[in-house]
Amino acid sequence: MKTRTYLLQKIGQVVLTMFFILLFNFLLFRVMPGNPAVLLARAAGARLTKADQLQLIRDLGLDKPLIGQFFTYIGDTLRGNLGKSTIVYPGQSVMSIFSEFLRPTLILVGISTILSTIFGVLMGIHAGWRRGSRFDLSSMGFSLVLYAMPEWWLGILLLIFFAVTLGLFPTGGLVSVTQTYTGFGHFVDLLNHLFLPCLTLTLAYLGEYYLLMRSSLLDVLGEEYITLARAKGLREKLVLWRHAVRNALLPTVTLVALNFGYVLAGAITVETVYSYPGLGKLTFDALSAKDFPLLQGMFLFFSLAVIIANLIADLLYAYLDPRVREA
Amino acid sequence: MARIPVLPTGTEPGPEFRGPVGEDRVPHTPRAITWKRRRRAVTQFWSIYRTNGMGMVGLYVLVIFGAIALLAPVISSSRGLDPTLANGPILAGPSLKYPLGTDDLGRSVLTMTIWGSRISLMVGLMATVLTMIIGASIGMIAGYRGRWVDAVLMRITDWFLVIPWLALAIVLASILGQSLFIIVVVIAVTSWPSTARVVRAQVLSVKQRPYVERARALGASDWHLVTRHVLPNVFPVIFANTILVVAIAILSETTLSFLGLGDPLHVSWGTILEFAYDAGATSLGAWWWLVAPGVCIVLVVLAFTMCGYAFDEILNPRIRER
Prior knowledge:
The complex is a heterodimer. By secondary structure, chain A is an all-alpha fold. Chain A is built from 15 helices and no strands. The mean pLDDT of chain A is 80. Chain B is an all-alpha fold. Chain B has a domain at 102-315: MetI-like (MetI-like fold, Orthogonal Bundle). At the A-B interface, α1, α6, α7, α12 and α13 of A face α5, α6, α9 and α12 of B.
């Protein structure tokens, strides 16, 4: 019974947040200085005459009352109609552009999130368990430096060193342009292009998972039930893995979801550095070209992705930690 | 319960404290008592802070960068930033005359990095001040008022917390335009929620303490309670949070600049890196153009983070004892 209340409450919150996002997205591009027609006209340069602008306003339904526009907008969005790109891919629907660019980003973000979580958590456990050891101090320094680094700067450095100077990896793109591979060769080619962006994002997010895991393990190690486990005469390995790590892992679950927004931000800059054709690079192109429908769609899409990630984390957390459900 | 050190609020001590103060001299006005207590807290705080190696290293680095930023006109001439006056070799690596090499217009990267520190630090600090004003006010109001005000404000906070910050920043900056002021506003708008939550949590705990109840029983107004009793006790938390926010603000400025949303008229570490990237420094292998500004960003952000950690450790006895 309680579980169901919790579930409904969470889903209700998500629906409310989504409504706010839609409202905000709607208002942002209409009420903010410069209505969409003016913004579009500015982006198109002097090519748009006054008559064209009026036509555009009528086409976009901007001459109707705001509340009516809002309902039209919500209806369109729910039906997956996010408008058409104006400059980057003129005339193409935003939705179809997204579906085309989604996969490379999912692969990049997915792999680097998994890798950074695994390595960050393992390093954190090792460091927290042997607090003050040489490994603890050096990994702490390493993580803090990574944490203080803009991820795209790290990307540029890795690019210069591994791709430009050593020539070990391609400098960018999804696949080789000069040569077409098939079968296994194609796969290797893809991996070759994925390696540096993936390494950059993994390193960029490693530090945070490490720091959180280390401090949460230290918290747990101070608890009384750990002393009890030791008093019972359990082997140290068992105390660590079965008693301490299990509970210390909980905050990391939340961080993976909360971090999702930051990972997407990282994807925008790192994909740009490596000209990796995903949603991040697309966002950068839309931004440089001031393609507002595309930007608006991107904002909506990223926000929804983060909201859903948060919902999953909440539910997972409640599943892993019964105390959350009861509270 | 450990006493939380209270930090000075920036004004001079009252007239009662001019001249030498002995421990035996009894202050006789409430203000004097307060100031005596605060001075002792600061001294006590500093004596703990001094023993924190990480915090001291961070502080030294910050003092050095602060000095560089303030003394920029003394160390190097701002004429070095003007592309029309630049006369160095184009894209030359580090040499004796140009220790950090030159850019594609023949300007010294060292000069640009020195001057860039001013804008980077200024934007970071200004964005932090604005973040603190928004975050602390919302956190205080939500925590102090409670009930539906709290519920509404916290929903808004949660909502801002969920929005991916860079996506929001890109949308805002692309609509509002490009200037230092807008960068500051965009950073503040995207980073206040965590401050609001931290402050709210602290206000909720301070609000329950007996001395607040006592003051209320004596007929203190809400304004008096908030400014005299709640704020001074929330201040240390706000301060520790501030230091961490500066680090985030500086990083955010560089990322926004890199995406071309920065102010092209002012040289900051972020815009230097953007110029370099746009000019193709990556494919030309002109690493010197990219290394110095980036290293400065890392050092300053690292220093702020270290100071913030040291603060946290001192204010949070639980961490210290661990």
